Amino acid sequence: MNQMRTLAFLLVALMLGSLSVGLTAVLVEPQEQLDDTPPVMAATSPGHPVFAEYVGAYWCGPCVTSSNNLDALYSTNGGGGTQSEDFTFLSFWESPTTGWPNESPINRRAHINPSGYPTTVFGDAASGQYYTSGGQSYDSFYQSGGNMQNANDYSLTISQSENGNNMDIDITASYLGSGSKTVYIYGAVAEETSPERYTGGSQPHPHHVFQRWLLNGAGSGFESVTLTNGNPVTTSWTVPINTVSAGGGKSAAENFLTVAALMDGDHTTHRNIVSAADSNMGPKMDIAVSGLTVTNDAASDSYIRGDMVDLEVTVRNTGDLDYVDGGGVEFYYRNGVNKVTIGGTQSLPATVSMTGTHTYTASFDTSVLSTNAWKSTFGARLTGLTGDTRSANNDVTADLNHDRPPMTLTPQISPTSVERGDEVILTLRADANDDVDSISSTTFEVETRPAGTGSSSWTTDGISGGEDVVFAGSEYEGREYTFVTKTDMEAGHYDLRVRAIDARNQVSDWKVVLGSDAITVTNALPAIWAEPVPTVLCDQPTKVSMVDHVSDKESALSELSIASTSPSFLGWDATTSEIEVMFAFDELRGCPLGQNGIEITVDDGEDYSGTNLPYGTLLFNVIENGQPRWDGLPTRTVDEGGEGNFALYDFVSDTDPDGNLVSSQSLSLSIVSNSNPEIFNVDLDGDLLSYSTVDDDINGQTTVTLRASDGVQTADQTIVLKVAPVNDAPRMDLGDLASLELKRGKTYVYDIASLVYDIDDDSDAFVVVTPSENGAARYDLFTGLMTVEFEDLGTQTITVTAQDKYDSNSYTIMVNVYDAKPFYASTEADTGYMTVSLDNAFLGEEATANLFLTENAPTFTQLTVMWQVCEGDTGVCLNQVTYPLDVTAAERGWSINLEWDDVRPYGLQYNDDVKLGNVIATDDIGEEYKLMKPVYWRVTEDAPGPESMDDEQLVAHIAALEASIETLKAEIAAEEGDTTEMEAQLTVLQADLADACDDPRSECSGDNLQGEGTVDSANGISTDVILIVLGVLILAALLGVMFTRNRGFVEQPKWDEATLPSSDMVANSMYGGAQEIFQQPVAPVIPAPAIPAAPAYAGPPLPATGLPAGWTMEQWAYYGQQYLDQQQ
Description:
The chain is flat, with a radius of gyration of 68 Å. Helix 5 packs antiparallel against helix 6. The protein has ten helices and 69 strands. The longest helix is centred in the last third of the chain and has 36 residues, at about 1010-1045. Strands 60, 64, 65, 67, 68 and 69 form a six-stranded mixed β-sheet that branches. The chain is about 15% helix and about 40% strand. The chain folds into eight domains: about 50-280, Immunoglobulin-like (Sandwich); about 285-400, ntegrin, alpha v. Chain A, domain 3 (Immunoglobulin-like), CATH 2.60.40.1510; about 405-520, Immunoglobulin-like (Sandwich), CATH 2.60.40.10; about 530-625, Immunoglobulin-like (Sandwich), CATH 2.60.40.1080; about 630-725, Sandwich (Immunoglobulin-like); about 730-820, Sandwich (Immunoglobulin-like); about 820-940 and about 1065-1100 and about 1120-1128, Macroglobulin (MG2) domain (Immunoglobulin-like), CATH 2.60.40; about 950-1015. Mean pLDDT is about 85; it is low at about 1-40, about 1010-1025 and about 1045-1095.
């Protein structure tokens, strides 16, 4: 209940929430979108310097905001700012690597005493407005004056200049007021941009990070000076440049920042800050040298030692002041790490005005430069400057490549050995040996000579090429030359030398390759070609010209000697340049048709004592000379008693006198002989050779000689025919044994040995029987008898295997094992063995069964029928009655009154099943029969009324009713317990009797008729019930109206026929198609008659597996035997 209430409250809340959202959507108007306020681009200067101090750490997130905002303010209003140059600051920052900086003896971080990070202080404020904590913008603090005191009465300038590895720092303080003032110079060295970052890697760098104090001579505090109007005081320090690190893309010197402020007292307590500045502020003095050029008239980008080169450089004033303090320009070249001056120092003009430029030149003889250098570095530098704030741009250099002589690499020779008249490819490569030349600007000189001859023998004869670069871009790039040998050259080794020449005609040393490592020229061997292949006739001498088959670069064909050891080679005729060949016919192999080769040797007169004569193979196409030719015929094999045939035309061919093929079908084929006609029968029809064994058990082989004739020439061939011996396994002729019907538990004996025979062996075969049921079949090896007895019902098998030493055959006997033969009963006439009908199967009646044997029935000597009455709704059978039938009355049939007084004393009830459950019969040969499928009738109809009865039936009906009433009255009188059901049944019987007695044909005594009082009483009860029901309905209607009014106006659902249960597919399906129930009018309920307790039936014994699943013991009592019969 609590859950229901909770759910109700939730639903109400959801409804109210939805309404409020809807109202809100209507009532609340969208806000007008305001334009973005343009950001402030830069702070406005207060008109005097402002100084701030910042304390932060690498791990502090808000510190990033403070650091970025201070740097942004400095970029617009600090040194070099776009708006002004009057803001500077100093950062005391905890590094992730070195921690907090060493601030002794000033200890400024302790002086500031931050309560957290970040803390930023303007004008040394101890607290208040200018003492800030947390990440924020500082523009407002700067614009409001930054807590500076009398700042317009003081000025401060800082100048720093490199001096070797040190930085010279000058801080000048001035006072513009009256009288004198003593001030302390707060000075520090900082990194303009730290190389380290805030946590996170990609976070920004801190700026103006403190590195060192600028202290008084005692190192105990800041330097103090006394100022008067018009008398500035300058204080100087010298600090190593490596005090700071490179950062922000600048060198250490460029990242070196001096920050200073003027305080009206020492550092021991909070003071007024009267001015501030850093080294980025104010005008700068910067003289720079740039644009150094080195030119060579002989080459644009290189030099050869001895060339004169011209140097030129520009001096420029890049600062904010005119330079008037002297100095000079020196040109130099580098000799190792030393700078060697070229031509002395050239002085600067008396005044180098702002943005002014001056050009200086010099000439230089490169003969003094190193011979091994790949390039030389030239430079120009400024010397003797005073007050220059940046030395990084005081020296400039330029490189000039040294053009060195090339170096020739070992040439690639392909091939290293060639015959006279052939070409050699030379791939020549060189190392430029400098950064000036490449293979594109390099050429080669190539010469050859016979090995071992003098230097005067070198020649360029036969050398050509070199125009194109090969393998460009790879480590093998070079130029390709060709050396063509001559046919009249001496055979032997030839030396090769190569040298490279670069673009300025510098040549390398000769690269010499000697003897066998260079080029070997050999004798040109005679060449032998097989193509074109000549055609010759089989077994006939033929002359073939060697003009297109043998040649020599150095000799004519007639000067050569050709020989061969082949039996097909007959000789060589040098005068005609022909050889003679003959490919003979062989009795075993026939003609060597097709391509055949002959290996020949060719002697050109050279010395071949250490090697073999040149040799090669000539090919000849051998064709037939017109005689029929047989191919080899394959051996044919058949099994015992087998036969076959073989087409011969595919294995014989014929040619005309010119060797051209003609159709083999023009040949005449015949059998010359059969070596073993007692084994094979052979016959030839056209080209089809047919053969068969003489009988089924013959073995051996025969040779058949065949002949082909074209009318002029003949050719013979043989074919071998073989018989493959085959073992025949023992066989068995089952006959009627192939299918058996056997009764369970009965023994049968069969003679198996007489059915087995072996065509190959007279000895008895070994027989094995294998039944599907273990032990159901046994074979006696001595008697040859098989004994069979099955216990399992259904289809069984017996496998009989007969075998000899080599093989076996198996046969299967199909066995149908039965316990009893099926008995067929039917409600249709002349169907099955028995026709069954049922009379008087009505509610409250006793049925009568009529049974007749058909002409299909065997001659039965015993018949027993079993009838059951069952509840159709539950499937529970209430009783079974067995009726033995008198077989002598089979011709007229049987009529049985089916009485079940113990379970249906008042006749059949609605939905009862009257069932012929089983028939057990025995025929005249002792076979048993059982009903396989029961026959049943469903009781659903009332018995016909008296009006449909004839007079005799009416009298019998009244008599039966009166007898039943008397019997029931006696049972009620004798019953000591509850008799309500008996009395209800008595009322029904009396009503039926009254209906029967109303018939004018009836004669009733009236003793058993129902009295008036009883009927009135029943009607009175029914009226009371109706009144009570009407009262309840009226009360329910009133309550419904009241409830509806209390709930307010509710829309009434419209009547819909589809809402009836009969139209509700779900409900109708859930109640098993109960539509008829919903649509029928309500009928008065007839009380069911009292049913006496049914007697207990034990039924047949339970099987070994127990009671079947889903069964009750009551069902087992009536259906158990039928279940057991079906399982068998």
